[in-house]
Amino acid sequence: MLVIERARLADPYGTYYERGYVIVRGDRIEAVGAGPAPEPPGAEVIDAEGRLLTPGLVNAHGHLYSTLARGMPLPGFAPRSFREILEGLWWKLDRALTPDDVHISALVGGIWHLRRGVTAIFDHHASPAAIEGSLSLIKRAVADELGMRCDLCYEVTDRGGEEERDLGIEENVRFAREDTEPGRAAAHFGLHASFTLSDESLAKAAEAADSLGLPFHIHLAEGKEDVVDSLQKYGLRVTERLEKFGILREGTLLIHGIHLAQAELELLSGRPASVIHNPRSNMNNAVGAAQVEKMLDKGIQVGLGTDGFGCDMIGELLSASLLAHHASGSPTALGGDKLLALVRHNYALAERFFGVPMGRLAEGYAADLVLWAYRPPTPLSQDNLLYHLMFANISEGLCPHTVIGAGRVLLSQGAVQVVDEQEILAKAREAAAALWKRI
Ligand SMILES: [Zn+2]
């Protein structure tokens, strides 16, 4: 049993205590209250000393395989389009990954997420020269070694030929069947994007996903290339093409959704799939801005991810606001209630796939908690939590003091508790140097 006392408690559903406590038993919150904690005998006690305690954050779209790209030299790399970014950088990097690289990338990326208060990740993986077993290596790093929750899939694509495509399908099936674990490791069926998948491949993938009742995790209309390819080859907008294969099903994660026509927004508004917005990645790749406000107004479910561009979900949230202001010319675009909707949808997805109530500081909810190294300089209340987090993040910096994942202390006083971080970083530097030489 674990007691966190003398904390300022807040969650995105309106829970707020100026001074209170949380009692954790097993992987769940047992009690939450105001004032001093009733200290059960034998409990481990964490004195929050007035710091802010919130639920752990969720990243609804990441690429842990991209970790070792930090600082990689790319002589002559001057992409003129999104496709050239993929071909000149990501498709070279992922093809050079070995099984050891997949594991160390996930460990380092997982640690970075912990250091940003993220306790659950939906990852989209590619390692074409090391497909078989790759999802289990990520699970070993993220769930077994770091104690976080992960939802994994392999990006099926035609870009490496039929044999690789089929290995990708098999890896999704194998992982979903053999290696998922309730509450810790879940599965989607991964597809890269419409423009790298033929009708035959989509049909094959859909058949495999149907046999397991799995929803999909796929990039949607991220670059204009995706739209042009679908219109030219199939005479359909990308969303219409995915609809034809039953991909817009409940639980499906459609990543980006930038170049969507009005008819596609209408189609999505009648489907239970989610769109995941990744504003910083979109700005970096210069691919445009998703119409998030319009999507939410139409009742489309929208969550938030990083797309492997860092792990800072609070920074991503502020970037969603800034991008909406910039793209619309309105400083009130994507206001506080809409930002809250993005955060809450991430918790809804985590709850759906990990099977544990998430996102609230309340009895029975997941004991995924972040004690931020933060004491507010202005009044904090149930109405302004996100603004405190976003502006602390861009002014003085916002980092966790303690992170608890499924009831276990994973990070304490800013130090990772569950693995030897220095040893992992040293191994990662070696692996990255060797990887860069192979590219
Ligand atoms: Zn992505």
Task: Give your account of this protein's structure.
The chain has helices at 82-96, 99-114, 134-145, 162-178, 199-212, 224-234, 238-244, 262-269, 279-285, 292-297, 313-328, 336-354, 385-394, 421-438; strands spanning 2-10, 16-25, 28-34, 44-47, 52-55, 57-62, 118-123, 149-152, 185-187, 189-193, 216-220, 253-256, 274-277, 301-304, 369-372, 400-405, 408-412, 415-416. The chain is α/β, with parallel strands linked by helices and 439 residues long. α5 links the parallel β10 (189-193) and β11. The chain folds into 2 domains: 2-55 and 358-416, Roll (Urease, subunit C, domain 1), CATH 2.30.40.10; 57-354, TIM Barrel, CATH 3.20.20.140. α2 (99-114) crosses α14 (421-438) and α4 packs parallel to α5. The protein contains 14 helices and 18 strands. The N and C termini lie far apart (49 Å). Zinc ion binds next to loops. The site of zinc ion (ZN) has 6 residues, from loops.
Short structural summary:
With 439 residues, this protein is α/β, with parallel strands linked by helices. The protein contains 14 helices and 18 strands. Helix 2 (99-114) runs parallel beside helix 3 (134-145), helix 2 (99-114) packs across helix 14 and helix 4 packs parallel to helix 5 (199-212).
Distance between the termini: 49 Å
CATH H-level homologous superfamily name of the largest domain: Metal-dependent hydrolases
Shape: globular
Level of helix content? 40-55%
Query: Which whole number gives the mean pLDDT?
Result: 97
Give a short account of the largest sheet.
9 strands, mixed
Structural class: alpha/beta
Any idea what the radius of gyration is? 21 Å
- Taken together, the total number of domains comes to 2
Low-confidence stretches: none
- Counting DSSP E segments of at least 2 residues, the number of strands comes to 18
Which ligands accompany this protein? zinc ion
